[in-house]
Design a protein that fits this description.
Elements: H1 4-7, E1 13-15, H2 19-24, H3 28-31, H4 38-41, E2 45-47, E3 60-66, H5 73-87, E4 91-97, H6 104-114, E5 118-122, H7 129-139, E6 144-147, H8 159-167, E7 173-177, H9 185-202, E8 215-218, H10 219-222, H11 235-241, E9 247-251, H12 267-285, H13 289-320, H14 333-360
Parallel strand pairs: 3-4, 3-6, 4-5, 7-9
Antiparallel strand pairs: 1-2, 6-8, 7-8
Helix pairs in contact: 9-12, 13-14
Amino acid sequence: MNINAIFCPNSSFVPIAIGIPVFRSFGLSDFYRLSDYTNQLNFLFLPVSGKNSCSDSMDISVVVPLYNEVESLPELTSWISRVMDENGFSYEIILVDDGSNDGSWDMIGRLQSANTHIRGIKFRRNYGKSAALNVGFEATKGNVVITMDADLQDSPDEIPELYRRITEDKYDLVSGWKAKRHDPITKTIPTKLYNAATRRMSGIKNLHDFNCGLKAYRSTVVKNIEVYGEMHRYIPVIAKWAGFTKIGEQIVEHRARKYGTTKFGMSRFINGLLDLLSIFFVGKFGKRPMHFFGTMGVLSFLTGTVIAVWLIADKLYDIAHKIHITRDVTNNTWFYIALVAIIIGSQLFLTGFVAELVSRGSHDRNNYQIEERI
């Protein structure tokens, strides 16, 4: 007999009415000896269709960060629910309110009352999209995590194919590519430049749109990365540095904004470049900063030392051969170049040494991504 049927409402077996008197005839001691009554009880349970059981986990978690998107939330959540129900997915919708002041949180409350699949998280103030995604990732329960923006520019109809590529094609991350965009040229040109720079620096050659909000992740990916600052633009890069290298791309529909206006200004381009440099440095040298600062320091110090030795040797040669010296070494431009190079080299080396001490004292200095144990 399947004991799960007693305890699990989502089990593939359900009790029928005829079993009720039989249960009532059992004493407490009999309950612990159900195996003795297997033949008697098997007829009490009938198989039902459905893929969920006590051992099954949730299929999909949809994380939607939002800021002042009250008009689009009813349509978006209804659309997501329709897609999930049509495909038979077990799911949750996590709406992360990033400090909205237009009534978005009140709308989330009303939507949650009508749809128990919806969950809400509200920030006290606006922290940014990266913070919203990071908190949303921590709250997810699904085997596959889908992220999308709340402005209805991402289509929930893409979810089944994204889910299939994660579960069947075994991708760690699938990023959307809005090949045909409904954005002004002032946004598309900088985006192309940043995507080209990111491809070159990260080595992820197959992605065209790193910042697309519509992405699918294996659950283990979002549970093992940290998104902060404005790093949401480079989540594929963060995932790669964490060891999740099977990254794919899917062309997705980009819809025109239906309600409200964009919440991002021109400052995001400057911040995006700084974040890219930060990710590159931390990902490559975060656990061994001396390799970066020490190497640069040694090269600078050696360059200055070679120039200084050359100046001294030239001075001694002139003295030995009684060549008239037109100016002192300290009046030579190369002397100051050598001096600055030696000083900078020493400072870089000391910086690397201090950074190494800080790294060794960090609480996550031995926090490594372990894929599997046996």
